[in-house]
Amino acid sequence: MEHLKKNIRILVVDDEVDLEPLVKQRFRRQIKEGIYHFLFAHNGLEALSKLIEHPEIGIILSDINMPEMDGLTLLLKLKELKNPSLKTVIVSAYGDMENIRTAMNRGAFDFLTKPINFEDLEITINKTLDEIRLVRKSQEEHHQLLFIQHDLETAREIQQAILPAIFPPFPHRKDFDIYASMKAAREVGGDFYDFFMIDNDHIGFVIGDVSGKGVPAAIFMAVSRTLIRATGLKGISTEECIDYANHLLCNESTSCMFVTVFYGILNTKTGEVTYVNGGHNPPYLVRAGGTLESVPLTGGTVLGFLEDLHFEAGKIQLHPGDTLFLYTDGITEAFNEADIAFGEERLETLLKSNYSKSIEELSQNIVSGVQEYCGEAPQSDDITQLAIRYFS
User: Using an 8 Å Cβ cutoff, are 252 and 223 in contact?
Assistant: First the structure.
């Protein structure tokens, strides 16, 4: 508070020439110690000029009756500035309640009566400084929140930019189709998906869910996604890729963060998928005829938790028209207004009723179904899904 007082100027506006030396004499100790910093003006016009010259002015102690521009007119001009941290204390003759009432209606913070009692003046100044401190602290916190909001919006744009968003991503390919989306519960999310051509006959695809929320999860998400992509593009097996990614994530992980991952490679010639499930929700295999199968687990746990783990791979066979649907628990654990989770059964029902649609329609209908089920309940987790359909 003392630091704040030293940075706030007090502007005394009065046409009485004897007031300036009197104020300086009465508050000489506070002035010497840097507690009060006084400036002086003789009318409203001069006061406005001083405000431009000294933006650190926080208190205006103004008389009402002055030449050129009186105190009441000055109050109107100050109100136009819309500066909540600039406070005016009006000074008027004792008993002049009409002008005092007008001054308060025009935004005066407080008032004093003449002749001025300097003990009362000091109390009023200190009270006004305290109010300015609160207002400026609130303004600073508001500005900090705006900066944080801006940074989060930028982070959201960056995060969305690193996830594939153009579909179909390989329009020249007729042997498979792929679609994915991520709807973050906050400005930034901890879920991710990705896919990439390893060579002409193999496409890698991954979905992940980072523990925690907010910016830390978003950063860990970006690291995990980039690491798996860079490693997968080398063309190594799924288990080698996840082993290596887990090793690096364990070395880089802080605050005990981890990520669940499902990483697969589709052989576009044969329809065979090799995959590793690192503690993630088992995907669904939607057969061309509409039957549903859960993809078997591979015994793996989350990435970024235990460094020396070895992940085992599994294999499934896709036939023409089959769809592999990957998702995060933001779908099955989405809660409605009655606090009941969406659950696997509802997801399975939607998959069966939409199996014949394009994978884009299927995926969008899943997300729409979850949102419709949740109604007005706030989204508690990221909603992410990836679907890949094999043709031949």
Answer: yes
The predicted model scores a pTM of 0.70
Start-end of CATH 3.60.40.10 domains in the chain: 163-390
CA–CA distance, 172 with 165 (Å, rounded to integer): 17
Structure tokens belonging to residue 304: 């970024």
pLDDT in tens, 9-51: 999 999 988 899 999 999 999 999 888 999 999 999 999 999 9
pLDDT in tens, 55-65: 899 999 999 98
User: What are the Cα distances from residue 143, in Å, to 79, 130, 156, 353, 381?
Assistant: 22, 20, 20, 49, 28
Which architecture, in CATH terms, is 2-141?
3-Layer(aba) Sandwich (3.40)
Which architecture, in CATH terms, is 163-390? Answer: 4-Layer Sandwich (3.60)
**Strand ranges (E), 145-304:** 176-183, 191-199, 202-210, 259-267, 272-278, 284-286, 292-294
In angstroms, what CA-CA distances link 132 with 23, 59, 80, 126? 21, 9, 18, 10
